[in-house]
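One-letter codes give the sequence; backbone shape is given numerically. An example follows:

. . .
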Amino acid sequence: MNEFSYDVTVSAGRAVVTTAGELDAHTGADFRLALPELAEVHQDLVLDLAGLTYVDSTGLSMFLAAQKRAAAFGGRVRLRGVPPFLTRLLAVTGLNGILPVLR
């Protein structure tokens, strides 16, 4: 079975969501519900994606939905630790222009 996990750490007004495993519609059901709420509550939300080994279109839509929710509440979502496979996927889909990546 494919596993996905995430952990949230809040410090100095920034929430960092550290992810690991394979993110898809099946494995990320809880994440899909939690992410928009986090984006609504925290003005600065960082998604640390270094531990991801797979992301499908459902996962990408979760990132985009969080960004839209954050913007609606005056916040922002940024990506950190983006693995090479996901860097390519963000570029191909054009999401690299919408979801800022911290270097």
Observations:
- The chain has a mean pLDDT of 95.
- The chain has three helices and five strands.
- Helices lie at 29-41, 57-72, 84-93.
- The beta strands are 4-11, 14-23, 44-55, 76-80, 101-102.
